[in-house]
Design goal:
Elements: H1 3-22, H2 26-44, H3 50-81, H4 92-106, H5 114-120, H6 124-131, H7 136-144, H8 151-169, H9 175-192, H10 198-221, H11 227-230, H12 238-252, H13 260-272, H14 276-301, H15 323-338
GO molecular function: NADH dehydrogenase (ubiquinone) activity
Catalytic activity: a ubiquinone + NADH + 5 H(+)(in) = a ubiquinol + NAD(+) + 4 H(+)(out)
Main location: mitochondrion
Length: 340
């Protein structure tokens, strides 16, 4: 890809996210989301593969429809209340439309169909942007409007996302699709606590990004896109592949790793809100995701390939692991034991 075009796309991504995060007016928030959508399209389709073009087309259509619905929601609220301020979303119909629009943008169930397909059609670095950076502006809009949102609707969407994210990931062999369903499951944890404690949603999102970034970077370093090649990936950089198991278990939420912290806090907050049955259900549903995390960890570190393999064995071609990957790995595994 042309360096100038890549620089323009990345700069536009930062600009669009900044506009949405810092705006108080619905039109400016919508403008930032549109800039984000247009900036990521060249990065998705840069390989010129038919699958990448298909992913870019799907992403554009879904995001354009969600942005139009968000604009319609803000216009409806302005029609009835005369307010264009993001924090003054008070009309019930506008709140429902906004929740639907942000759910489409994030990929919450039942609007999740586009996300695994788009992530499968992109490179791992672009998929990392889709799974982390591009979810921050819509989540910010949810945080700003959280006092007006319907808690029952968000709870239903959250439980459905956690259930489907775990269930659909069980039958996958592509690592990018597994990480996509993992993202959907974690979005359910963020959505369920949004109305009761918005700051906890933000902490959960930050920690999810902290755990997902090193996994994507590690898979990109060892060039592993599916489970069949993961069993031979240890021949490239054995220490990095060994720590991949701990990163996956941290993403699954096993104590005392970093991923246990947000789930612990969310279950504690739901119990304080006298929602113990809901906390029990979402905790049990997250066990579905634990199975495919364990399968990934098993394939990466414990499994040895059989003698008759139908693909070329990997070899140690590049040992130069970037320093920032090591930093992210340490934080994604040891943040909870190291913190007071």
């Amino acid at each position: 890809m042309n360096p100038q075009a890549k620089l323009l796309s990345i700069t536009s991504l930062f600009l669009g996210s900044t506009i949405t995060i810092t705006s108080n007016h619905w039109i400016m928030a919508w403008t930032g989301l549109e800039i984000n959508t247009l900036a990521i399209l060249p990065l998705i389709s840069k390989s010129h593969h038919p699958r990448a073009i298909e992913a870019a087309t799907k992403y554009f259509l879904v995001q354009a429809a969600a942005s139009a619905l968000l604009l319609f929601s803000s216009m409806t609220n302005a029609w009835y209340t005369g307010q264009w301020d993001i924090t003054q979303l008070t009309h019930p119909t506008s709140c429902l439309l906004l929740t639907t629009a942000i759910s489409i943008k994030l990929g919450l169930v039942p609007f999740h169909f586009w996300f695994p397909e788009v992530l499968q059609g992109t490179s791992l670095t672009t998929g990392l942007l889709l799974a982390t950076a591009l979810k921050f502006p819509p989540i910010t809009l949810l945080l700003l409007t959280s006092p007006s949102l319907n808690p029952t609707l968000l709870t239903i969407l959250a439980i459905a996302s956690t259930a489907l994210g775990g269930w659909a990931g069980l039958n996958q062999t592509q690592t990018r699709k597994i990480l996509a369903f993992s993202s959907i499951s974690h979005l359910g944890w963020m959505a369920i606590i949004l109305v009761y404690n918005p700051k906890l949603t933000l902490i959960t999102f930050y920690l999810y990004c902290l755990m997902t970034i090193p996994i994507f970077l590690t898979l990109d370093t060892i060039k592993t896109l599916k489970l069949t090649t993961m069993s031979t990936a240890w021949t490239k950089i054995p220490p990095l592949t060994a720590t991949l198991m701990l990163m996956l278990l941290s993403l699954a939420g096993l104590p005392p790793l970093t991923g246990f912290l947000p789930k612990w806090l969310i279950i504690q907050e739901l119990t304080k809100q006298e929602m113990t049955p809901t906390a029990t259900i979402i905790a049990l549903l997250s066990l579905l995701g634990l199975f495919f995390y364990l399968r990934l960890a098993y394939c990466a570190t414990i499994t040895l390939p059989p003698n008759s393999i139908n693909h070329m064995k990997q070899w140690q071609t590049n040992k130069s692991t970037k320093m920032f990957i090591t930093t992210f790995i340490t934080l994604s595994i040891m943040l909870l034991p190291l913190s007071p």
